[in-house]
Every structure is written in structure tokens, then in C-alpha cells.
Write a structure and sequence with these properties.
The protein has 602 residues and is α/β, with parallel strands linked by helices. It has 24 helices and 10 strands.
Amino acid sequence: MSDKNEKKPPQHTSTLALMRRLWRESIRHHLGWLIPAVICMALVAAATAFSVWLLKPVIDEVFVAKNRDMLWPLGGAVFAAFLIKGLANYGQSVLMSLVGFRIIADYQNRLFAHLTRMDLGFFHGQSTGKLISRFTVDINQMRVAVSNVLTGFGKDLLSFVFLVTVMFAMDWQLATMCIFIFPMAALPVLKLGRRMRKVTANTQEEMGLFTTLLEQTFQGIRVVKAYGMEGYEKSRIAGIIERIFRLNIKSARTRAMSSPLMETLGGVAVCIVIIYGGNRVIDGATSSGSFIAFIGALLNAYEPMKRLANLNASLQEGLAGAQRLFQLLDTEPNILEKPGATELPAVKGNIQLENVSFSYQPGNQALKGVSLEVAAGKRVALIGSSGAGKSTILNLIPRFYDIDEGRVTIDGNDVRDVTFASLYANIALVSQEITLFDDTVRANIAYGRAGASADDIVEAAKNAAAHDFIEGLPEGYDTMVGEQGIKLSGGQRQRLAIARAMLKNAPVLLLDEATSALDTESERQVQSALDTLMADRTTLVIAHRLSTVTGVDLIYVIDEGRVIEQGTPLELMSQGGAYKRLYDLQFAEDEQATDSVQAAEA
């Protein structure tokens, strides 16, 4: 990763600063859901306090005055209070879940869009797993923090204050006894377990798919950028994020159903207690103290008090995730589009590197004053030992990295002065490291040009010598290729990549050792397809096997970041320099391999 110009993001460490940013960027945009949620919280707190207040007329009218006519009205009032509380609690739970999960979806979309802007150096310096954890663990922790804080300072704090005020004004000893009755109200929650397990399993499955898609995209970011498919990937990610959002809402609704069930059960219980227990008190069958203790047990403020006690710990846990997320969102790419960048005009394909120097790390130059030209419509090869700087030169043309000194131009236009979209639109890339997505053959070829017709895709496959083997697949063009094309051979994967490049039909073609990992037969088929692809295009080839570049117009020999030789294959052979030594070495190795095979066959 190139860190020589790395932009350090600002640090957000204080609780207040993080909460202000969460409010500014997320929470305030959801007031349409938050205001009804707060109203529901107020109803919950008011219904809870009203239920406690009803103890006084119950005691006065039933136990003291022994007024039998008040049993049903008071019992009904208590039941109504619990019903309102249950429904309001359900409403605020669902609304707060909507806010929380919407924040997750918004930040996931925003984070993915931000990461597609980052340069290759950023991804080379990052762990894919850590990036994915920002989408899952950190953002979810942030949602929990937001939901807990708003709920704690809404429903729980109001309920706690109202209940404590009323209950302590009457009899604090009776209020403390209510803890023993709550297990009865929790029983209905057990019946929701099966439904919750099913929803959770579906959510986890979608999360697994989401993680896989993210990993594939980040691993193939060079292809995504080279073919200008950031918008397509954003659309794919947005679709799966929306499905996860809907599953999370379903889970929240299922979980929230326990609240009205418990509250309704509590209301029924209190109603029965008032009617049945009140009659027993009037008849002298039980004491007033036992009846009041039972009522007080169902109207206690223990749960909101417990949640408030744990609020800060939950808040800090969530803000830790928010801080890591914000650090990533605040990280700017080292390579930015120039303000006022122009569209690259109709490209003929003349590429020039003018005295270019480049380093991945300060003090360790990968290229040292390199100058070379790839004339429009010509085929030029870069050869040299591993680490000589060949791939670095290739990566500078589509501006995957920015140079330290010099210029890289296409038809005289500095690549730093043109828009990314117009630059990528005119360049096709085929490399040894083939990136295929876990999708159909058709979709992988269509990556070369958005909106390509079925006929265009088939034509590209034919030109890439891929149509015949595709037709032999179980479902033809609709066959799933597996992750990174695992279901296909190396030669088949390579030909799909060539078909993709053919479909793009860009005037500039970059080939990065496209046949070096193939066997002889696969190489022959792929090389034939490459010859078709290179026709009438400006082509820059990095070749490991010199036999594949004998037909090029010009060869540059690269060594330790410098151009040490240049010329046609025949000119370089006649010079007897580095190229001839490489050629003779490979020829000798090929002869030895042939002799070994013949000896084994004999």
C-alpha cells in the first residue's frame, strides 16, 4: 500500500462528539419515526403510572368502603391501562427497530459506496475480514447504542420517574415486593421461540451471502474499477441489504409481540385479582396486605431501573463501533479525481510514460525514470524478471496508482487530468489472476458492458473461443461458475475474461501474463483468442513466456525499475543483450522439459 500521501482521518473519541455526529448524520433524518416512538414511550410511562395510581381507589373503594359496585369499573380500568401500555410498547419497539435497522442499511450502503472510491493501495493494505466486520459487527453495535439510548431516556426514564414518584408516595415497602410476580408475565415469550429461530436462521443465511459478495467485490476491485462497474456493484449490494433489512424488521416484530402478550396477561391478572381478590377481602377471606402486595408486584419499576443502570455500558460498546466506522468513512483515497477533470476524448490509443518514477513505500522506488511509448494500434510487450516493475507500469496506465514524478498520457492527455469514468471506459484488462463472480457465465461476460444484449454476449464468447465449451456446460450460459469460477478450468476462466474484454470493446488493452499459468493446450486456445482480441487495438502485454510475444511490434526489457533494452524481437536477438539471455534460458528449459517427457514416454 502506498502510504506516502496517506490522509489520516480525524479522531472522534468523546461520547458527546460521537453522539452529536450520530444525531447529525443519522438520527435526525428519522424524526418521522422517532416522534411517534416517543409518543408511544410517553403512553407506556403514563399507562404504567396510571396503573399504579389506580391502587388508591381500589384500596379506598374496595377494601375500606367495601363498595362492590366499583369492582368491575376498577378492574376494567386496570385492564385498559395494561392494554394501552402493551400496544404502545409494541409500537415504540417496532418504530425504534425501524430506526435502528434503517440506520444499519443506510450506513452499509454509504460505507460500500465509500470503499468503491478507494484506490488499490488502500485495499492492499487492509484485511478483507476487518472491512467486512465494519459492515456487520460495528454498525450493529452502533444501532444497539442508538436504540438503547433513545429508549432508555424515553420509555425507561419516564416510566422510572413516574412509577417511583407514585409508588414511593403510597408505600415503598409494597413496591419492592413486586419483583416476585414477573415470572408469570414472562411465560408467553417461550412460545415465540420457534418463530424467532426460523427468522434468525434466514437472517444468518442472508448475512452469509452478504459477506461472500462483499469479499468477492473487494478481492476483484481492480476488475470492478477497470470495467467501471461500481454502480452495478452498488445496486447488487443495495438489493441484499434491503432483504436483510426486511428480515430484521420481521425479527423485531416477532420479538415485540411478547410485549402486548405479557401486558395483556398482566391486565387480565390484575382484573381477576381485583374482582376475585376484592370479593375475598370484602368477605374477609384474605387480608388487604396480601391483595395490595400482589397488585404492587405487577406495577413495579424494576425493569426500567435495571435498563437505565446498564445504559452507559451499552452506549459505550455501541460508540466503540461507531468510532471505528467513522474512522473508515473519514479515510480519503490517496487517488482523487482532479476538480474540473475532463472527459477523455475519442481515444486512438497512443500511450506514453515520460520519465516516470514511482514508489509503493517512501525510499524504495519501484520505477526509476521510465520512458516508453505504445503507439496507437500497436502491440508492445514488457518482459523482465519478477519484481522488475512490469505490473507497476501496467497499473499506472488506468491510474490504479499515482506516480511520483513524470507523466502518463493517453493520446497526449495526462491520466490525472481526466475523469475516472472516461479513463476506465477506454481500457480493458485481462490478467493472470482471473476474477469471476459467483454468478452465471452470462453475467460474468456481461460485466464487460452494462446492458449488453444476449447476442452481443454470445458473439463475444465466440470471438474468445469460449462459445463451444459454454454450450457444453449443464445450463449453458446460465451455468453458475462458483466462487472465483471454481467450477471451470483455468483455460475456461481465462477465455471468459477475454470474452468480457471483447464485449467491452475498449481501444486500449492491458494483458498481464494472461497465459503464464496455463498448460500448453489451454495456452494455445487462449492465445488464439487473444490474437483476435488484440486486433486493431493498442495492446500492452506483460509476458512470462517469450514465445507468446514473438509477434509484437516492440519489446521493452525492464530490470530493477528501468528500461534497459527496447526493440523488435529480431533486433533484440541480434543485440545479444538481456532479451537474448532470457530467450536462450527459456529455450534451454523448454528443451530440457521436452527431453524429460520423451524419456518418460520411452
